[in-house]
Amino acid sequence: MDDMLKDFVVEALELAVDVEERLLQLERRPNDPDTLNAVFRSFHTIKGGAGFMNLAGMVSACHLTENLFDALRTGKTAVTPLAIEAALQASGFVADLLNQLHNGATPESLAPMPDALNRILNDAIEGRQPVATAAAVAPVASQPANGIAQADEAGRIDWVGMYNAVVPEQMRIAVSAVPTAPAGTGESNTDPAPAHGHPPGWDGVDRRNTPSETRTPEDSIRVDAVKLDALLEVAGESVQAANQASVLLEKLQQFKFDGQAATLMSTLAETLGRASRYATELQRATLATRMQPVGRLFQKFPRLVRELARDLGKEVELVIEGADTEVDRVVVDSLYDPLVHMLRNSLDHGIESHEDRIAAGKPPRARILLKAWQEANSVMIVISDDGRGMDPQRLRAKAIANGLIAESASLSASEAYQLVFLPGFSTKEVASSVSGRGVGMDVVKTAVEKHRGAISIDSELGSGTRFSIRLPIELSIVPTMLVTAAGAALGMPLALVERVVELPEQFMHVGGAPVLRDQGQTLPVRSLAASLGYEPAEERVGIVVAAPSPYVLSVGAVDGTADLVIKPLTALSVPGITGTARSAEGELVLVVGLSFLLAGATQEA
Q1: Are the C-beta atoms of residues 595 and 488 closer than 8 Å to each other?
Q2: For residue 66, with 0-12 CB atoms within 10 Å meaning exposed, 13-18 middle and 19 or more buried, which class applies?
Q3: What digits encode the pLDDT tens for the residues 30-65?
Q4: pLDDT in tens, 164-173
Q5: Whole-angstrom Cα distance, residue 479 to residue 472?
Q6: Is the pLDDT of residue 210 over 50?
Q7: What one-character-per-residue DSSP string does 202-262 give?
């Protein structure tokens, strides 16, 4: 893909996503002129670039949708469900073509606009209900088949019109007279009929007439994500090197220096301190470039929920909160599939039918909440619904029937909820196109844990279910508590450390297991060394872990805290260990996994 086409695809994809969100807003507020005009301008912009790139199918779809929204904003056609559906289908077709280009397809290989899309758009423009057998009649002359630009009677391309369609307004070439193309030969070179009281070319907002010299220059540029990743890695290593140099300097300062050597040591300490500050600032600035609001991800889901609810015959409202919460872009990119699986399960399994909700005394319109917020050094993402909830006994019985657990297994409610993450587990008797094949939720857990996250379930039968995902805000650098267990240097996420306590020589026991009375609570005590399979060693320091079921993790010693650059384990899998890092002294540190600790420091996690 050449650079010009690549830039067009990136910008057009952003417009397509924005269009979809605005169309769903328009469904709730049909007569909002700002939304109508914004959608019109977006399709117009995409059409101009697509014509320049010779993308005939995209031009045709955008052209008809542009005609539709010109009719809607001027009041010639009413905003109806058919009009919304037609525009959504058009934006979906355009987005599909753009994604194909993004994945390496050539412009020549793209499909033309489907006849069904052509029919529904024309039906919406004319304000009639679609009739499958009727021949669609375009209300305006269609775009030429080659989709490039306007042409005169001799077939010559209007290069000036094409240029004006894709450049900023201040760079457009003035045209003194614009001929009208004969009917049936191409698109009219005149703009659509303007709204009453507005000059020709009016697009729903006042055009800016500011001279080009006073316009604000662009304040952003596009940078390849691979370059940002490389920059972040270098910044992290710079901080690590500065920290190690500081440790060496502290050791040097234990010796006595006189004269010029003392002066050099003082200068070295000052210079090293400055270098360390700059390295830290560089690291923070680089991290900021990777942070993206989860709203970029969340805005893809209203249409998915709308269409799936319609297919299932259910009435569902998706409420989104915390869309401005920022998280590492890698996390944002990797969460789409897990959240889709969770929303589909909520719609299919969790939300009752219209009749069942009324019989249960619930509003006919169900509610799904998708919420994000920052909590310490983690981001929390929650999907909750007001549906039927989960029955722990039914889950257990289904798992036994499928041979996933032993019949003698005794499970608490929270442990029963975790059964849904087992591969092959499903409570549906018959698989559908939505769910029931026993795949999906195990994929969710795998994807979350891949990024050092954890997922938990809370449910109340008859009231609803809540899925909670905890993920690090950024992946490469983690605030860590450094500990020693059985002589090994280990690190654990600082976000889970509630407090550090001194352990007694003798413990109370409940059910044969050691417990510690702490701040009015009786907490189980678990050895970190034993949990990781190390040789037993003396452990006199306890760390209260802020897990769903709090407990005390015993370690040999706490060696302080540090922001570590985490390198994931790729060549091997070690239970409980999620990655490695280097301490300020250059020592190799094994980083204990977040999900392992949240699950109670057990090997089964």
Answers
A1: no
A2: buried
A3: 888 888 888 888 898 888 888 878 888 999 999 999
A4: 665 556 555 5
A5: 10
A6: no
A7: --SSPPP---GGGSPPP------HHHHHHHHHHHHHHHHHHHHHHHHHHHHTTS---THHH
Residues 6+ apart with CB under 8 A from 305: 316, 318, 343, 347, 368
pLDDT at 317 over 50: yes
CA dist 569 → 463, 491, 574, 593 (Å): 41, 14, 8, 11
- Gap between the Cα atoms of 76 and 211, Å rounded: 35
Helices (H), 353-507: 354-359, 392-401, 413-417, 441-450
- Give me the helices (H) in 484-579, please: 528-531
* pLDDT tens readout for residues 539-579: 889 999 988 788 999 999 999 888 888 887 777 778 889 88
Are 425 and 398 in contact by the 8 Å Cβ rule? The answer is yes
Q: Of the candidates 592, 380, 338, which has an alpha carbon nearest to the alpha carbon of residue 473?
A: 380
> In the prediction, which pLDDT does 398 show?
87
Would you state the structure tokens that stand for residue 163, as one six-digit string?
Answer: 């240029």
Q: How far apart are the first and last CA of the chain?
A: 44
Q: Which residues contact 240 (CB under 8 A, 6 or more apart)?
A: 565, 582, 584
CB atoms within 10 A of CB 231: 17
241-245 average pLDDT score: 85
Dist. CA 592–CA 493, nearest whole Å: 7
Is 157 within 8 Å of 149 (Cβ atoms)? yes
3-class secondary structure per residue, 540-553 = CEEEEECCCCCEEE
**Contacts by residues 211-217 (CB-CB < 8 Å, ≥ 24 positions apart):** 212/170, 215/170
Residue count of the chain: 605
Q: Select the highest-mean-pLDDT range: 21-25, 191-195, 334-338.
A: 21-25
CB 198 within 8 A of CB 70: no
| pLDDT > 50? residue 418 | yes
User: Which region holds residue 529: left if phi is over 0, alpha if psi is between -120 and 50, else beta?
Assistant: alpha
Q: Amino acid identity, residue 228?
A: L
Rounded average pLDDT over 256-260: 88
Structure tokens at 452: 């050092």
Contacts 24+ apart (CB under 8 A), 520-526: 521/550, 523/550, 523/551, 523/552, 524/551, 524/552, 525/551, 525/552, 525/554, 526/551, 526/552, 526/553, 526/554, 526/600, 526/601
- Residue 174 CB contacts under 8 Å (≥ 6 apart), including other chains: none
Per the CB < 8 A criterion, the answer to whether 235 and 279 are in contact is yes
pLDDT digits (tens, 9 = 90+) for 262-306: 899 999 999 999 998 998 888 888 888 888 888 888 888 888 898
Cβ within 8 Å of residue 361, ≥6 positions away: none
Q: What is the CA radius of gyration of the chain?
A: 31
Cβ atoms of 99 and 9 within 8 Å: the answer is: no
Confidence of residue 458 (pLDDT cuts 50, 70, 90): very high
Which stretches does DSSP call E strand in 330-476?
366-375, 378-385, 454-460, 464-472
Tokens 């080009």 belong to: 212
Give me the phi and psi of 569, to 5 degrees please: -80, 125
Structure tokens at 369: 């909440």
